[in-house]
Specification:
Largest sheet: 5 strands, antiparallel
Number of helices: 10
Helix content: 40-55%
Strand order of the largest sheet: 4-3-2-1-5
Strand content: 5-15%
Structural class: alpha+beta
Order of helices and strands: HHHHEEEEHHEHHHH
CATH architecture of the largest domain: Roll
Shape: elongated
Oligomer: single chain
Length: about 280
């Protein structure tokens, strides 16, 4: 007769195993999803970006496609579109006209063209997003690209500019003077790479805490890939949950063997025996 503690353990053990199997299935599915997205983007970028050109020429090729590409689909109700699906953002006219999704489209094509890029949010003083642009690493400098207006921001001498340089009001006015209708409010006084306000825990003071504990945390990882590509987010979440559940299962196995002293199904032992039986040549007597 099993005790209450043993019955409780077996219930927890079965739930943990079921959750682990489910997470492994999601992990396999999300890996296939992310692989198919990357294949699609690689084919798309190969079609519009010439081979063996400089990083700056790759950026210009993507912007030229965004300016002069073939006719795109139009959706009567764009709010129903999947904004985090790269295939959707590349093929709908409305999404290529909105700063957030236009920047996503640019970032996805730039990554597939072997460019190092990141998303940059231009913020109001109260930290609301007013515009979204991209930064591209060229010659060890993070230069600014505005996919919404299809331009690399440059000074009067034609030199590309970083966000630090664009904080200078004179340089910013010089860089945007030739862009029709460019709002002067899209300055670089306040910026971020991650919009904490999108998270349900935004009121808990996460940003100041992270800034204090991990200075420069926003630029240590490509947060835009995690937060703006659904397939990569699901893959990352499934990987984390699977690792966590594996750790839980190992702990429960140790607890059953060393504390409760109850028998359980040892998957590794059975797989080892099955492998030995399959690979060992039978003796003929």
């Amino acid at each position: 007769m099993l005790s209450l503690g043993q019955r409780t353990f077996r219930f927890v053990w079965r739930v943990a195993n079921a959750a682990l199997v489910a997470s492994l299935l999601v992990l396999v599915y999300s890996a296939g999803w992310e692989y198919s997205v990357r294949r699609y983007l690689d084919g798309f970028s190969d079609a519009i970006v010439p081979a063996n050109v400089s990083p700056e020429q790759r950026v210009e090729a993507i912007l030229d496609w965004m300016r002069n590409g073939p006719p795109r689909s139009a959706e009567p109700s764009p709010t129903g579109l999947a904004f985090r699906d790269p295939e959707t953002t590349l093929n709908y006219k409305q999404l290529l006209s909105v700063c957030g999704t236009a920047t996503n489209a640019f970032l996805n094509l730039a990554r597939s063209s072997d460019l190092q890029v990141q998303r940059l949010l231009l913020m109001t003083p109260d930290r609301n997003t007013k515009h979204v642009v991209a930064e591209v690493l060229i010659n060890q400098r993070w230069v600014v690209v505005d996919p919404t207006y299809r331009v690399m921001l440059r000074n009067a001498r034609g030199e590309t500019l970083t966000r630090q340089e664009l904080q200078n009001p004179r340089i910013f006015a010089e860089a945007t003077a030739g862009i029709p209708g460019y709002p002067q409010s899209y300055n670089y006084d306040v910026y971020a790479h991650v919009r904490i306000a999108r998270l349900p825990v935004s009121g808990l003071g996460i940003r100041p805490a992270l800034d204090w504990m991990l200075p420069g945390w926003e630029e240590r990882f490509d947060w835009s890939l995690l937060l703006e590509r659904a397939s990569f987010f699901v893959l990352s979440a499934a990987s984390f949950v699977t690792f966590l559940l594996l750790a839980v299962r190992m702990f429960l196995g140790w607890y059953a063997d060393h504390r409760l002293k109850i028998s359980r199904f040892h998957l590794r032992t059975h797989l080892t025996r099955a492998g030995v039986a399959f690979l060992t040549t039978p003796e003929i007597k």
